[in-house]
Write a structure and sequence with these properties.
The protein is of the alpha/beta class. It has 13 helices and 12 strands. It binds pyridoxal-5'-phosphate.
């Protein structure tokens, strides 16, 4: 490769996503079934698409203010109050971002000083570690285990806190494990987070896909709320991945700092997408319900089937992934996925793409039609039986 020595060395050594790497291989083959991508298979509900079309038709195609349209910020705050009973001020506490992805990036760049440690419970969504490093931070992993239902325990948290720890990333319901945290689970870790004055970055992008009980945000805990940064977005709950709209909810002083990065790098999220998001957040509760019901059915089906064919699978409480153990096969995660792709034309994601803690597992997304899921399971059963 050219420029190796000249380019930013942090970027040079960041590993390309273990998901993409695998699917690039899959794409070169014919008749591959993939349960790899974390993207709902529903077309965005029509009234939301219509709102985007209408915005374009009416010429609402200019930059918006940097924080995003006020009507959208009001809608987001009403939504957090309505669904999760947490109050935010649309003028002071919100930035509309380009997906949850931008939100993660600008918040880490806002809070981290060079060398600061960020606790990352793993297996974790692939982007976090890379973004922490690009923001000058150091990733400190702590393992979420199947025995603890992939929840963060006070022991796992305390073990990795040092005097350099600046922040922690939480993602419940989680990608790739589907783990959730209840109010009681959070109550056990909040005193530790408070004692060490950590910034808590909570990525709640799968909040609406909580199958047992109701989603609880750690922002509920008043004693740490000033240091909690909520990240959420429209991609998963409303099947709006391509619109690229997300948001940050945080203390006004964090918002005003993060806004500088957003202002100079992004300016504002796409305007017609913001109009679509207004429609989603104000009138989309019913759409959430419909997709939720379908995902829950698929979850129940796929977990039952995986256990039947011999892959021990924990029942995920949220998101749209299952994380079966493949340890009985004696294969490493990557080996398992490579063989599966070669022999059965089925593409799954190796668990170690989400950190070493994911070794011995694979991630299967059930954001696919029941028909595709059935075909994939038949291939998997064939493979296991061999
Ligand atoms: C946990 C998690 N956070 C954030 C994102 C990014 O979503 P978006 O940028 O589309 O809002 C994803 C996407 O897969 C995710 O799984």
């Amino acid at each position: 490769m050219m420029f190796e020595e000249e380019i930013n060395q942090v970027v040079r050594y960041i590993k390309p996503s273990g998901i993409r790497k695998f699917f690039d291989i899959a794409k070169t083959r014919k008749n591959v079934i993939s349960l790899g991508v974390g993207e709902p298979d529903f077309i965005t509900p029509w009234h939301i698409r219509e709102a985007a079309i209408y915005a374009i038709e009416k010429g609402r195609t200019f930059y918006t203010g940097n924080k995003g349209l006020l009507e959208l910020r009001i809608g987001i705050c009403n939504y957090y109050k309505r669904r999760f009973n947490i109050s935010y001020d649309p003028e002071a506490n919100v930035i509309v971002t380009v997906g949850g992805s931008e939100a993660i990036d600008i918040i880490l760049r806002t809070v981290l000083k060079p060398g600061d440690e960020v606790i990352l419970p793993t297996p974790a969504y692939v982007a976090y570690a890379a973004i922490i490093e690009m923001a000058g931070g150091k990733v400190v992993e702590t393992e979420l285990t199947e025995e603890n239902e992939f929840k963060l325990t006070p022991e796992a948290l305390s073990k990795v806190i040092t005097d350099k720890t600046k922040a922690i990333i939480l993602n419940f319901p989680g990608n790739p494990t589907g783990g959730i945290m209840t109010r009681e689970d959070y109550a056990k870790i909040v005193p530790i987070l408070k004692e060490h004055d950590l910034f808590v970055i909570t990525d709640e992008i799968y909040a609406e896909l909580t199958y047992e009980g109701k989603h609880v945000s750690i922002a509920e805990f008043d004693e740490i709320k000033d240091r909690v940064v909520v990240i959420n977005g429209f991609s998963k709950a409303y099947s709006m991945t391509g619109y690229r709209v997300g948001y940050i909810l945080a203390h006004k002083d964090i918002v005003s700092m993060a806004l500088k990065i957003h202002q100079y790098t992004i300016m504002c999220a796409t305007t017609p997408s913001q109009y679509a998001a207004i429609e989603a957040v104000n009138n989309g509760d019913n759409d959430i319900e419909v997709m939720f019901t379908s995902f829950k059915q698929r979850r129940n089906y796929i977990v039952k089937e995986l256990n039947r064919i011999g892959l021990k699978t924990h029942m995920p409480m949220g998101a749209f992934y299952v994380f079966p153990s493949i340890k009985i096969t004696g294969l490493k995660s990557e080996e398992f996925c490579e063989k599966l792709l070669n022999e059965e034309n089925l593409a799954l994601v190796p668990g170690n793409a989400f950190g070493e803690a994911g070794e011995g597992y694979v991630r299967i997304s059930y954001a696919y039609s029941l028909d595709e899921i059935k075909q994939a399971l038949a291939k998997l059963e064939n493979f296991i039986n061999k």
